[in-house]
Design brief:
about 400 residues, alpha/beta, Rossmann fold, 2 domains, nine-stranded mixed β-sheet, six-stranded parallel β-sheet, 15 strands, globular
Amino acid sequence: MVRDVLCLSHLRWDFVYQRPNHLMVRAARGRRVYFVEEPEFGEAQLDGADQPHLRRAVRDGVQVVTPVVPSGLSESFLRTALARLMDELAASEEMVEPILWYYTPMALPWTRHLRRSALVYDSMDFLAGFRGAPAGLLHLEDELLQGADLVFSGGARLHGRLATRGANSHCFPSSVDVGHFVAARAAMPEPLDQASIARPRIGYAGVIDERLDLGLIDSVAAQRPDWQIVLVGPIAKIDPTHISQRPNVHQLGLKAYAELPAYLGGWDVGWMPFARNEATDFISPTKTPEYLAAGLPVVSTSIHDVINPYGRLGLARIADSAADTVAAVEAALNAGRAADREAADAFLATLSWDRTWAAMAVLIDGATAAPQGATRPPGAQTATVGARPTDLSVELAGSSSGRMGRDGL
């Protein structure tokens, strides 16, 4: 029996296209996939007209589900409301013991009661190291690891953290859709907001948040005003005014995944100016192989999963200080985009999201075929479900608290 996937994510589907999107799209080619985002909070109405509900859309064959709940609910009523919405989703779609696939342990309190055929924890980041990480995250992660049938890690550094804590742990580092990004190597029409920017262009594509070394970006821009630094991606959890305002630093904002090859095709170097802090200690950037597939030379700060394998294989230049970064970028510019492309392509031939999903699917099929015991993680308590609408209305009427929950990391 092919099981449905009920995926619980801290990321929104239409944010930056990354690991959950790649894997769930591929999962949806052979089974039903429901991607449940973190809840959105609306204005509470005392007459009860704004009851919790699900907003649904289809993206590339994936059912994207967003719980919408009123602001002002206590934590206990919020859990009750979300658990009831999950019950309604499972009932309306006639799910029979789906695979519960977690990207965030914070969804556990309102899904741990659901019957499942397997529980998968796909850890793509050390979320507790992110700014604004919620209290209790590590405790819930411990519970998730104890009950998981499979643990997937998004990089070698993460795998080292989790392998000794959860049974059946497997390392699946960041991969790449080579066919998508290789288009950047051919002549492509320049995006309008990039066409007027002079060359050479040193580009970064990704979320602009506390993981970036904003001081390094500013210092490099100051030392080489003739270089144009292009930042493509949304700003999250930082003050936008802290990003360098120099005339050779260009913020182009969030772009759709389909647009990225056209932007990368107009760059001369792909840069990953990551800070070295708790938020970056365990990252395995998907942009490393994406830059290489686009034919770009790569310069990065000393991130563990970039140093090994990319730095070790000579596929990325590693530099942390502004002076070292300027030297590394100069070397990349002098070598040109075509340098070491054969070595990069040989390495990229070993990577693909299709291959990653195929390997995961084998493990998942084995887990769902095995006899199942308890339908909840060991030690978990059954969540309260099925609260009556009047219960929630009473809670709204008596609550003076603000918004509960949190935005995606």
